[in-house]
Specification:
Layout lengths: L2 H6 L16 E10 L12 H14 L11 E5 L5 H9 L5 H5 L5 E5 L4 E5 L5 E8 L3 H16 L6 E2 L3 E2 L11 E8 L1 H5 L3 H10 L2 E4 L12 E6 L7 H29 L1 H17 L5 H16 L10 H8 L2 H8 L5 H30 L1
Antiparallel strand pairs: 1-5, 1-8, 2-3, 3-4, 4-5, 6-7, 8-10, 9-10
Length: 365
């Protein structure tokens, strides 16, 4: 496995899978925050102490506990170019905090990119597991097994009364954040989401954009996650989140049915106008591209658009981010140059998708 593989391929292998409820749920994630008992926490540590942590990771984390994830590769942030780090953020493999605020950070990545273990971020370890579709329990079981594997090699900072000790008080306890990424265009179009979000917040959950706290919900993609980690078990957190997400899924499906029944021609017009923009634009900004991609994905899910795969939204939302565009161009680009490159890349990708679809139809005949 090479750094180039992680950087050059927009779609992580796990993104190609279609998990349960994949028409609405794009991914499920579970993350554990952990610190080492005999080390200063990263927010107060110096370079030498952080390098000691990385040294321990390099020497201890060799035998991978699960054959399904493949080998883990260690990438140190100071060895990466700014564009390479940005690409890893765009793929949800590392956080912005790891490259902007951490000192001597690193990440362990699995071959299929399901597993990402950030080192020396806000905490010594951020163990993240990502899976396609609505599979919270699957993500939790994988993260839990990795957590047990790491704990068999190192001593965690743990208090019998408070639980796992973390840099941020909001993570103390289980240290677990569980989240689900959902595509909710119908709830946005019908303006129902504005009423649903406050109700979700009252249940101890939070709704954010696709890149977490402080990010915008590009392409009508929202992340729902738990806020409380203390006083609840991991099972309680997973079950609470799962119950709320199931209700949101049902509301999104009902909103989609209502749009088809009551506003079909307007919906079709919106979908095909967006598809036309993507197929013909010579310059397009990221927000407009995300909006059009969301419309087209909705059209695919409702059977209005043929010849395009569901993964086109996920792939192109990542592929057209600033880091990827500049990585492919092999140079820094101005905002206008990025907008031109984005439009070109989308047109070429859609054309390739149509060609593959026609070939598949020909092979079947």
């Amino acid at each position: 496995m090479s750094l180039q593989r992680f950087i050059s391929e927009a779609v992580s292998p796990w993104m190609k899978d279609e998990g349960p409820d994949s028409d609405i749920v794009m991914s499920s994630r579970v993350r554990f925050a952990r610190n080492l008992k005999n080390y200063v926490f990263p927010i107060l540590s110096d370079r030498e102490q952080n390098l000691e942590v990385i040294k321990e990771v390099r020497s201890e984390f060799n035998d991978v506990p699960d054959d399904h994830i493949g080998e883990l590769e260690l990438l140190e942030m100071e060895d990466l170019k700014p564009i390479e780090k940005r690409v890893l953020v765009e793929k949800h493999l590392i956080s912005r905090n790891l490259i902007e605020q951490s000192k001597n950070g690193a990440v362990l990545l699995s071959e299929n990119e399901t597993v990402s273990i950030m080192v020396n971020e806000e905490d010594h370890f951020r163990i993240q597991c990502l899976v396609a579709g609505f599979e919270l329990k699957k993500a939790f079981n994988l993260a839990n097994s990795l957590d047990d594997w790491i704990e068999s090699k190192v001593d965690y900072a743990f208090d019998e009364r408070r639980g796992y000790l973390t840099s941020c008080p909001t993570n103390v306890g289980t240290g677990m954040r569980a989240s689900v990424m959902l595509h909710l265009p119908a709830l946005v179009l019908t303006q129902q989401l504005n009423h649903i979000i406050p109700a979700i917040n009252q249940l101890g959950l939070v709704v954010r954009g696709s890149y977490g706290e402080g990010s915008e919900a590009l392409g009508n993609i929202f992340q729902i996650s738990n806020q409380i980690t203390l006083g609840k078990t991991e099972t309680d957190i997973i079950e609470d989140l799962q119950g709320v997400v199931m209700q949101v899924i049902e509301k999104e499906r009902a909103a989609r049915r209502a749009l088809l029944d009551n506003s079909r021609i307007e919906l079709e017009d919106r979908v095909y106008r967006s598809l036309g923009i993507l197929e013909n634009s010579r310059i397009i900004q990221s927000k407009e591209a995300a909006k059009c991609l969301s419309d087209v994905r909705l059209g695919i899910d409702l059977g209005l658009v043929k010849g395009l795969s569901k993964s086109i939204l996920t792939e192109l939302l990542i592929l057209t981010q600033p880091g990827f565009l500049q990585q492919f161009a092999g140079a820094s680009l101005t905002p206008t140059e990025r907008d031109i490159k984005r439009a070109t890349l989308i047109r070429e990708r859609l054309e390739l998708e149509y060609q593959l679809s026609k070939k598949s139809e020909g092979d079947e005949q």
